[in-house]
């Protein structure tokens, strides 16, 4: 415990947690980060296993909270932004569905909140590189 919130010593870093973002990461942000990070890591692993070539993978999270129910998280929308040259939307959509089924964090909370996943493809061409 510290003056504001708590400090957690992890093997690779120290993490300050507090309901006030001035003093640390907020608890709901940790949950969203865990879900987004797990889902993205599983998605990436599937893409790599299939030897699909992508240039970059980014995930953005939008959160909806229910003020009438202790401000609980009611929905998380994850948008996966995949950049690459020869992207196959159909294959990547299947891979994203598989990732959701194999992400332990999504599977842990799927009955408590809505998790929506979207796929945004950015097709690169030779003009994108200078």
UniProtKB/TrEMBL annotation:
PANTHER family from the UniProt entry: PROTEIN YHFA (PTHR34352)
Protein name: Uncharacterized OsmC-related protein
Source organism (scientific name): Terribacillus halophilus
Listed SUPFAM superfamilies: OsmC-like
Signal peptide from the UniProt entry: none
Lineage: Bacteria, Bacillati, Bacillota, Bacilli, Bacillales
InterPro entries associated with the record: KH_dom-like_a/b, OsmC/Ohr_fam, OsmC/Ohrsf
Pfam families: OsmC
């Amino acid at each position: 415990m510290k003056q504001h919130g708590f400090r957690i010593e992890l093997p690779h870093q120290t993490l300050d947690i507090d309901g006030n973002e001035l003093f640390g990461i907020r608890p709901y942000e940790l949950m969203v980060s865990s879900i987004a990070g797990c889902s993205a890591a599983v998605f990436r692993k599937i893409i790599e296993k299939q030897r699909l070539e992508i240039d970059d993978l980014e995930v953005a999270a939008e959160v909806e909270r229910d003020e009438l129910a202790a401000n609980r998280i009611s929905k998380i929308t994850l948008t996966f932004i995949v950049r690459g040259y020869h992207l196959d939307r159909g294959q990547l959509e299947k891979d994203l569905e598989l990732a959701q089924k194999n992400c332990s964090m999504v599977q842990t909370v799927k009955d408590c909140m809505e998790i929506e996943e979207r796929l945004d493809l950015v097709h690169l061409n030779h003009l994108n590189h200078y």
